[in-house]
Design brief:
Length: 293
C-alpha cells in the first residue's frame, strides 16, 4: 500500500464512523431535538452583540416593570433594563461557563481516572478516596466556599466549577481503564516495549473516549446550573449578566412582573433539558453494548 493511500483510507474510515454515529444518534427524536436546541442557543450566544437591541446592564432603556411589548419583547425589569437583552447575553455567559467548566473537569477527571485505573493498588485507593471525598460534599456548597475565597470573577467561577465537577468523569474513565488494560491489544503493545505513557494515552484512552464524551456532555448542564445558583445567591461575576442574576433580581417582583422570572428561567430550563437530551443520545450512539440493536 502506498503512503498516499494510507491517509485516504483513514479518512474513509473516519467518514464511515461518523455516518454510523449519526445513523444511530438520529434514531432518538429527543436527542436530535436537544442537539438542535443546543445549536440554537450556541448561535444566539455567538451573535448576542448583533441581535441584542440594548446593553443588558444599562438602566433606563425603558420604563421600569414594563410588560412585554413590541419595543421590549420580554419586558423590562425594575431598573428599566431590557429583559430580552439580558436573556440573550446570559446565553453567552452560561454557554461559556458550561463548556469551559466541562472541558476543565474532563481534563482533570481523565488524568486522575487514567492513572488510578491503569496503575491500581495504593495509587488507585488513594485517588478514589479523594474522589469520594469530593463527591460526598455537595458541589454547590464547595463552590460557595471557593468562590468566597478566590473571588467571583467569571474565570474564577469557571475554574471552581471545573475543579469540583471532575469526580464522576474520573470514575467513568477509571472503570474503562480497568476493563481495557487487560485486553489483548494492550498486552501486544506492552510486549513490543511500549512505555506506560504510550499505552495510557496512545492505546487505552482513545478507546475510552466514548464514555468520556458522554460523561463530559452531562457535566455541561450541571455546570450551567451551578453557575446560575452562584449568581442567584449573589456570588456570580457582578460585571456580567447571567440567567441566575436575573432570577435573583426577579424574586422580589414575582407578583408584579411575571416576565422577569419566566423568560430567563424558561431558557435556563430548556438549555439544561436539551443538554441532557444530547447526553442521552450520545450514550445510545456510542455505547458499544447497544451497537447490535
Amino acid at each position: 500500500m502506498t503512503r498516499r493511500a494510507l491517509p485516504t483510507r483513514r479518512a474513509n474510515v473516519l467518514v464511515g464512523d461518523l455516518k454510523e454515529f449519526w445513523r444511530r444518534y438520529r434514531k432518538s427524536r429527543t436527542a436530535v431535538t436537544g442537539l438542535a436546541m443546543v445549536f440554537l442557543f450556541a448561535v444566539i450566544a455567538l451573535i448576542a452583540a448583533f441581535i441584542s437591541p440594548y446593553d443588558p446592564l444599562k438602566v433606563g432603556v425603558g420604563p421600569p416593570l414594563t410588560k412585554p411589548s413590541a419595543r421590549h419583547v420580554m419586558g423590562t425589569d425594575d431598573l428599566g433594563r431590557d429583559v430580552y437583552s439580558g436573556v440573550v447575553w446570559g446565553a453567552r455567559i452560561s454557554m461559556l461557563v458550561g463548556f469551559l467548566a466541562a472541558i476543565t473537569s474532563a481534563i482533570i477527571g481523565c488524568y486522575i481516572g487514567a492513572i488510578s485505573g491503569y496503575y491500581g493498588g495504593f495509587i488507585d485507593d488513594l485517588l478514589m478516596r479523594i474522589t469520594e471525598l469530593f463527591m460526598v460534599i455537595p458541589r454547590l456548597f464547595l463552590a460557595l466556599v471557593m468562590v468566597a475565597l478566590f473571588g467571583s470573577g467569571l474565570w474564577n467561577v469557571i475554574f471552581v466549577i471545573g475543579v469540583l465537577s471532575w469526580p464522576p468523569i474520573a470514575r467513568v474513565v477509571r472503570a474503562e481503564f480497568l476493563s481495557l488494560k487487560e485486553r489483548e491489544f494492550v498486552e501486544a503493545v506492552r510486549a513490543l516495549g511500549a512505555g506506560n505513557l504510550t499505552i495510557i494515552f496512545g492505546e487505552i484512552l482513545p478507546n475510552a473516549f466514548p464514555s468520556l464524551i458522554v460523561s463530559s456532555s452531562l457535566q455541561v448542564g450541571s455546570a450551567i446550573l451551578i453557575e446560575a445558583g452562584l449568581s442567584f445567591l449573589g456570588l456570580g461575576d457582578p460585571n456580567t449578566i447571567s440567567w441566575g442574576m436575573m432570577l435573583s433580581n426577579a424574586q422580589r417582583f414575582l407578583r408584579e412582573a411575571w416576565w422577569m422570572v419566566t423568560f430567563p428561567g424558561g431558557v435556563l430550563l430548556l438549555t439544561v433539558l436539551a443538554l441532557n437530551f444530547v447526553g442521552d443520545g450520545l450514550n445510545d450512539a456510542l455505547n458499544p453494548r447497544l451497537k447490535e440493536r
